[in-house]
């Protein structure tokens, strides 16, 4: 639309955006840009949207499905890339936009490299070790919360806790979760909760009987919503990591979305994928405890009822026995008769068995005596035969004589006698008097 001569031209918004786009196209396109990926998102249509930035500036970028399909690597926040595309103006919002036609990796971004260096340093010091992680309290009386007052994470955590455990006190230590001064303020907020926890333990002991909002928290939630690596930079701070590591109570870190990881997540006792999940991890729903109590009450009631029924049956049985003493006496009498019968039968059986054993022993004794007599007779006969073989009369029958002196001494050598000595020679039949000639 043209006004009077010399008047300033009044542009329509669409015409101005198109003119700026034409000027950019004529002056710059095609253009190559080097920068760091931030806020990368892939839509359901396959188009990708992200911000390309460096230390001093940033520009919004769009990569349509055709160009995104040609990528040979997985794009992540913090990647340092070189893109080639065309500058333009997105008229619907009036934003400067770079339509990316190709992208290649140029190395890791500065923030991501800083993140990796700090992660390796703290890991070497053992701040990520599973052995130093503590278990969450089963039923905390007070929960500490560190986040920004205006953050959506605060609303999510409060809503989850009110829904699940409205009886548990919540102590908020507000601190900004983004910006240059955020790490120091987050550390200060944590330290304020640590002071409450240490003071409560020294005053009431670890198991105090009651809790109030002024009491020290038994677990601390450190939360914020999702964002780019720059937005989460405060949670990749070394001072904050060391503050979390020296916490006197367990710390649950719920920063960003499920895919976001920060140094605070690795140092904390437990990582939650979202702020709401962090609240749910430290607060078992009241309904769960009520259901457990109801089941315990039901089991206890069943046990007591069963015990009462059994005892009532025992009482009934005892009363039945005591109510009919004559019947009890009859039963006892029948029992005694039965016992006496069994005793007599048992006695007879024992006597019969002993008699049988005695007869067996008697038979065995007679047989043994007979064998002993026979053995002795055989030995006597053998001795008689041997003795008969030694009888001198048998020798004399073979023509020998038994020479003795007058005193009856046997003469076996010639030097035993002297000339003229009288001797007696006994033969097999009879005896002869002899006298030594020489």
Written description of the protein model:
The chain is α/β, with parallel strands linked by helices and 438 residues long. The protein has four domains: 13-108, OB fold (Dihydrolipoamide Acetyltransferase, E2P) (Beta Barrel), CATH 2.40.50; 115-284, Succinyl-CoA synthetase domains (Rossmann fold, 3-Layer(aba) Sandwich); 324-390; 393-435, no CATH class. It contains eleven helices and 13 strands. α4 (152-164) packs parallel to α8 (275-282) and α5 runs parallel beside α6 (238-245). The longest helix has 65 residues, at 325-389. The radius of gyration is 60 Å and the shape is elongated.
Topology (SSEs and partners):
Elements: H1 13-27, E1 31-42, E2 48-53, E3 58-63, H2 65-68, E4 79-90, E5 95-108, H3 110-124, E6 142-147, H4 152-164, E7 169-174, H5 182-204, E8 219-224, H6 238-245, E9 251-255, H7 263-267, E10 270-271, H8 275-282, H9 286-323, H10 325-389, H11 392-397, E11 402-405, E12 422-426, E13 431-435
> So, the CATH homologous superfamily of the largest domain?
Succinyl-CoA synthetase domains
Tally the structural domains: 4
Biggest sheet character: 5 strands, mixed, barrel
CATH architecture annotation name of the largest domain: 3-Layer(aba) Sandwich
Q: With helices defined by DSSP (H or I, 4 residues minimum), what is the helix count?
A: 11
User: Shape, please?
Assistant: elongated
